[in-house]
Automatic annotation (TrEMBL):
GO annotation, cellular component aspect: extracellular space
GO molecular function: metallocarboxypeptidase activity; zinc ion binding
Name of the protein this chain belongs to: Carboxypeptidase O
Origin superkingdom: Eukaryota
Entry-linked SMART domains: Zn_pept
Length: 372
C-alpha cells in the first residue's frame, strides 16, 4: 500500500526535510535538571526503570488508571473526544481542590505517532509533580492555583499503529482513510487546526507526511482539542505541546509573515530558560495549521512547542537510555515556563490590587487631611 512507507524511505525523507517554524535552538544541557525518582509502593511501576522505557497504549492506559487510584484527591480523568477509530481521547486533570475557579496549564503529547519520547515525557511530568507537590513549596502553590490538563497520547490510533511492527514504527499521521479515490491513510494532525490552515508548509496530497486534510478540523482528534481549548481559553495560562526531535522550542506563528502579539515575551521566556544561550533561526520552511498557532490565536498567551532529543543521530528512534536525561531537561524547561505563567498571573495581579488599594487609601487620607 502506498501509505506504508518503508523505514528507509522515511529515514531518507526525514533527513532531507525540515519541519520547522520560528525556532529558538535550545542547549538543553544549560538548564538545571531534576533527578529522576521512581514512584515507590506502586503496583504497576515498581520496576526501577519504568520511566526509562517506552510503553504501548495499553500500558499507558493502565498507568493513567493507576495515577487516579493512587492519588484520588488530586488526579481525575476526562474523556474529551474520540479518534477516527472510536478510541477515547482521555486527559488527566491534576490539581488540589479549590472552591474558586482555577487557572489551567495544558500539555499534550503524542500528536505524531512515531515520536515515542513525547508520551514518555508526559508520564514523567505527571510522576514528578505528584512526587514533589507535598514537599516542594512552589509546586504545592501552583497545584493550589492551577489545574494541569495532560493528554499523554493524542494521536492514539497512530500511536497504536506505530507499535505494530518494524514497518510501521515511523508512522506519523492519524489513521483516517483518504478521500476522493486516494488509497493512503492519515492526516498530519499538526497541520489540521484552524490557524492559517493550508497556507504554508503543508501538502494536499493525502499520501504525503504533511497532508493537512480536506479542510481545517477534518480530523476528530483536532476537533476534540479545539473544542476543549475553546471552552477553557480564558483560564489557560500556557499551552505546551510536546514533540521530537531537534532539541528546540518553537513559538507562534508558523506563517513567516505573522508574529504573535507577545512575540518578544515568548522569546524572552525562552532566553531566561536557556540562560541566554539561544540563537534565533528564522525558519526557511515554515508551516501552518498547528495546535500551537491555534492556541495563541484564541488568546492563550504562552504557547510553545517542545522538540525533544535528539538532533538527528537517532531521530524518532531515540534509544531508551536517553529517555531519563531527555525528560529531566524537558521537565526543567516546562517547570520554568509554568512557573513564569503562574507568577505572572497571580503575583502581577496581587501587585496590581495592592497598588490600587494603596492609591485608594492615599486618596482618602489626602481628602481627610484637606477637610481637617
Amino acid at each position: 500500500m502506498k501509505d506504508d512507507l518503508t523505514r528507509q524511505t522515511n529515514r531518507n525523507f526525514i533527513k532531507n526535510s525540515n519541519h520547522q517554524t520560528k525556532m529558538y535552538s535550545l542547549d538543553v544541557h544549560t538548564v538545571c535538571v531534576c533527578q529522576c525518582t521512581v514512584l515507590s509502593g506502586v503496583e504497576e511501576t515498581t520496576e526501577r526503570n519504568y520511566y526509562s522505557r517506552y510503553h504501548n497504549m495499553s500500558e499507558i492506559t493502565a498507568w493513567m488508571e493507576q495515577m487516579k487510584r493512587e492519588n484520588p484527591d488530586v488526579v481525575s480523568s476526562m474523556v474529551y473526544g474520540q479518534t477516527y477509530e472510536r478510541r477515547n481521547i482521555t486527559l488527566l486533570k491534576i490539581g488540589l481542590s479549590s472552591t474558586g475557579r482555577k487557572k489551567a496549564i495544558w500539555m499534550d503529547c503524542g500528536i505524531h505517532a512515531r515520536e515515542w519520547i513525547a508520551p514518555a515525557f508526559c508520564q514523567y511530568f505527571v510522576k514528578e509533580i505528584l512526587r514533589t507537590y507535598k514537599t516542594d513549596t512552589k509546586v504545592n502553590e501552583m497545584m493550589k492555583n492551577l489545574d494541569f490538563y495532560i493528554t499523554p497520547v493524542l494521536n492514539i490510533d497512530g500511536y497504536i499503529y506505530s507499535w505494530h511492527n518494524e514497518s510501521t514504527r515511523l508512522w506519523r499521521k492519524s489513521r483516517s482513510p483518504g478521500t476522493g479515490g486516494c488509497t493512503c491513510y492519515g492526516t498530519d494532525l499538526n497541520r489540521n487546526f484552524y490557524a492559517n490552515w493550508g497556507m504554508v508548509g503543508v501538502s494536499t496530497d493525502c499520501c504525503n507526511l504533511f497532508y493537512c486534510g480536506t479542510k481545517a478540523l477534518s480530523e476528530s482528534e483536532a476537533r476534540a482539542v479545539t473544542d476543549m481549548l475553546g471552552k477553557m481559553s480564558e483560564d489557560i495560562l500556557a499551552f505546551l505541546t510536546i514533540h521530537s526531535y531537534g532539541q528546540q522550542l518553537l513559538v507562534p506563528y508558523g506563517h513567516p509573515n505573522i508574529s504573535a502579539p507577545n512575540h518578544d515575551e515568548l522569546v524572552q521566556t525562552i532566553q531566561l530558560l536557556a540562560n541566554k544561550t539561544l540563537f534565533l533561526s528564522l525558519s526557511p520552511d515554515p508551516f501552518s495549521g498547528s495546535s500551537q498557532d491555534f492556541a495563541r490565536l484564541i488568546g492563550i498567551p504562552l504557547s510553545f512547542t517542545f522538540e525533544l532529543r535528539d538532533k538527528g543521530e537517532h531521530g524518532f528512534e531515540l534509544p531508551e537510555d536517553q529517555i531519563q536525561p531527555t525528560c529531566e531537561e524537558a521537565y526543567a524547561g516546562a517547570h520554568h515556563i509554568i512557573t513564569y505563567a503562574h507568577d505572572k498571573a497571580f503575583y502581577s495581579y496581587a501587585a496590581t490590587v495592592t497598588a490600587t488599594l494603596w492609591t485608594t487609601l492615599l486618596a482618602a487620607w489626602v481628602s481627610s487631611a484637606i477637610l481637617l
